[in-house]
Specification:
Elements lengths: L12 H4 L10 H8 L5 E2 L11 H10 L12 H11 L6 E4 L2 H12 L5 E5 L5 H8 L3 E5 L8 H7 L4 E7 L11 H10 L5 E5 L14 H4 L6 E6 L12 E5 L1 H10 L7 H11 L2 H24 L3 E3 L5 E5 L4 H10 L2 E2 L1 E2 L8 E5 L3 H15 L3
Parallel strand pairs: 1-11, 3-4, 3-5, 5-6, 6-7
Antiparallel strand pairs: 2-8, 7-8, 9-10, 10-13, 12-13
The structure holds pyridoxal-5'-phosphate (PLP).
């Protein structure tokens, strides 16, 4: 080992063994690599309509104040969120993306003696934040690609400090019923914090309304995380938030950086909350796009996993990575999910009608080897 490599031995054991998060390929990177134009990216579940007008106007207005530090308490955004969700402002924790909430909760609660329970095929950030703290990940086999709540409960012991659940789940798009989730959280020991990751809840259209916020009244160990990155179209600004008991919010607040949300993110998020039209349009485009893509899969004889989110996993019945690479050469970036133990699937984020069409055309050609 050369001298430069010795520094790896100085990092904590957890970090030495950590495999970093692999993000969707940026459009600019593919442009550089292949010299292509007209590239589309359906790889990171971003909003194909972009940010809303109200958010953009708020950003413009805030630009002259950028020499000043942001409001570290996020007062105004938290007021708006508190009103919208009928919670106390002090139950809200703002994060630099909801990813930061996942990291804060890990940092506040985990040491190497503890365990973290989450499902197979669950969001890739859960193992990363667990590993970074040197805690032990207990991965519970999925049931029909979704969370097996009974098996997860069985896996919880007195050593379990955290449970992560994404509903809908990314990358599978599976949705748990509200009653099963409610029962699951109620059955957890009070030594265990439950993180309910609702990054995609705005897209859920089922008969049963999502009422997880009501559960905060009875579960002091529940952290709900939500984000402005997906339905609100502000992924580039990094804003998410946690809703929890006052006590759990107080704990998270102790480990957060004083200015973890920047000024533009704060004002844009607050205005986006107010932009019902953009949200409705986003959901409309998503519903139509989901239909367009699944109709296309049907024509190609491909199966998919029914998804409650703004993305869908298609089963290629062959290795996904080469198809992913062939699509790249046609200027279409999607997401291979071999790292989620789904080697034969690709995850497609729902795009605009023309993006979906461009993808389906490229997929059809790829599968026909042209
Ligand atoms: C996209 C995503 C997030 C959050 O992303 P942020 O941009 O950090 O808010 C969280 N959880 C899941 C399951 C996601 O897919």
């Amino acid at each position: 080992m050369n001298n430069n490599n010795k520094i790896y031995n100085l990092a904590t054991i957890g970090v030495q063994q950590l495999i970093p998060y692999k993000a969707g390929k940026p459009i600019e990177e593919l442009e550089r690599e292949l010299g292509l134009t007209r590239i589309i990216k359906l790889a990171s579940n971003e909003n194909p309509l972009g940010p809303g007008k109200k958010a953009l106007a708020a950003i413009e207005l805030a630009l002259p104040s950028l020499a000043l530090y942001p409001d570290g308490s996020g007062f105004s955004l938290k007021q708006a969120l508190a009103k919208k969700f009928a919670v106390d402002v002090n139950q809200i924790t703002l994060g630099n993306g909801s990813n930061e909430l996942l990291e804060l909760v890990a940092r506040a609660f985990l040491t190497p003696e503890f365990e973290v329970v989450f499902s197979q095929h669950a969001f890739a950030v859960y193992p990363i934040v667990t590993q970074a703290m040197g805690a032990k990940a207990v991965v519970v086999p999925a049931l029909n690609y979704g969370h097996d709540l009974d098996a997860m409960l069985q896996a919880v012991t007195e050593k379990t400090r955290l449970v992560f659940i994404a509903n809908p789940n990314n990358p599978t798009g599976t949705l748990l019923s509200q009653s099963s989730l409610n029962a699951f959280i109620g059955a957890l020991p009070d030594t265990c914090v439950c993180v309910l990751d609702e990054a995609y809840f705005e897209f859920v259209s089922c008969v049963e309304p999502i009422n997880s916020i009501d559960w905060l009244k009875k579960f002091p160990n529940l952290l709900i995380t939500r984000t402005f990155s997906k339905a609100y179209g502000l992924a580039g600004l990094r804003v998410g938030f946690g809703l929890s008991s006052l006590q759990l919010a107080d704990i998270l607040n102790r480990v957060r950086q004083p200015f973890n949300n920047n000024t533009l993110a704060l004002v844009a998020a607050e205005s986006a909350l107010d932009d019902k039209e953009h949200l409705q349009q986003t959901i409309r485009v998503n519903t139509l796009g989901m239909q367009q893509l699944t109709d296309g899969f049907k024509k190609l004889g491909l199966e998919w996993i029914p998804s409650a989110g703004n993305f869908v996993l298609v089963n290629l019945k062959q290795a996904g990575q080469p198809v992913y690479e062939a699509l790249l050469r046609k200027g279409v970036i999607v997401r291979p999910v071999g790292n989620y133990e789904l080697p034969n699937h690709l995850r497609i984020s729902i795009g605009t009608e023309s993006e979906n069409q461009q993808f389906l055309t490229a997929l059809t050609k790829t599968l026909a080897n042209v």
